[in-house]
Amino acid sequence: MAHLGVADLAGIAQSAYGRELHDVTRLSGGSKKGVYRLTLDDGTTGIAYVWRASEDYWPEHDHDPLFGHASGRDLFLTAHTALTESGASVPGLVLTTPDVVVVEDLGSDFLEQSLDTEVLDRLWDDLAAVHRHTSPRYGRPSALQPLDAPAVPDVVLHRALGHLEACCARVPRIAAERDRLETQLRQRHAVLAPRTTYSLIHGELGPDHVLVADGRPVLIDIEGAMFFDVEWEHVFLELRFGSHHRPVAGLDQARMSFYRPAQHLSLVEGPLRLLDGGFPHREAMRAIAEHNVGRVLAC
C-alpha cells in the first residue's frame, strides 16, 4: 500500500499552519486510517489523521451501526467533543477537512512504556469521569439508538453468535466446541437484568491508545467512543491492562462474565479478517488471534 508524501499533504500543512511542509512520516499501528507526522519548514510538527480508501487495510467491513468499522472524520469529531466534555484529555484540534483532521503533536510516549507511574492513576480518574457521563440511550454520541431498540446484551449476543460462526469456519479448535460455546453465551446472556442508563466509553482502550504528555494521559484512537454498558469497557481494560487494571465498585459481574467470551470471539474474528487484506504487521495480528482462541476456549 502506497503511503502519502510531502506533495500529498503540503496543502493540508499550509492550511493548518501557514507554513511549508518539509517531511512526512507515517506512524505505525493504524488499520483504518493513516496517521502522519507532519514536519514543517521551521522544525515544528503536527499529526494528520487521514481517512481515505488508500489508508484502509480492511478487505471488508462489518456494517453494524454500533461496532461496524468505527472510523471516519465525523465519528472522530463527535467522540472528541463527548470525551472533552466528560473531562478526558484528547489531542487538540488544529484543522478539519472532509477526510483529514490535523491535531497537535504530543510526541510518542505511550502509557504502555510507563505503567508503573502516577499517570496510570490519572488515567483511572479520567476514565471514572468519562463513565459518569451517561445517557438513557446507547449508541454513538451523534447517533443514539431509540428507547425501544434491542437491549445492549441482545445486541452483543447477536454479534457474538455471528463471530462464533465466522470463527468456526476458520479455527477448527473453536468449531469443535461450537455447541458448548453457543450454550455458554446464551446461558450467560439469559440471566442479565434490563438496564436504562449507559456510560460513555472509549471502546478500545489499551495502553497503546494513551499518550503521555506533560504528565497527563491523553486518549487517542477515539472513534469507537459510545454510550454503552460500562462493563464492556472494563472487560477490554481487564484484557489489555492485566494486573494494572483497576476494577471499580458496582460492576455487574454477570455482564462481565457474558462480555468476556463475546470480546474474545471478536478478537479472533477481527484479526483473522484483517489478515485477508494487506495489513503489514501480520505476526502481531496472528498472535492476537491465537491468544484469544485460547481465551475463548478457556471460557
Automatic annotation (TrEMBL):
| Highest taxon of source | Bacteria
The record places domain Aminoglycoside phosphotransferase at 109-231
Q: Name one Pfam family in it.
A: APH
Q: Which SUPFAM superfamilies does the UniProt record give?
A: Protein kinase-like (PK-like)
Q: Which Gene3D superfamilies match?
A: 3.90.1200.10
Which InterPro entries does the UniProt entry name for this protein?
Answer: Aminoglycoside_PTrfase, Kinase-like_dom_sf
Protein name in UniProt: Aminoglycoside phosphotransferase domain-containing protein
Biological source species: Lentzea albida
Q: What is the lineage of its organism?
A: Bacteria, Bacillati, Actinomycetota, Actinomycetes, Pseudonocardiales
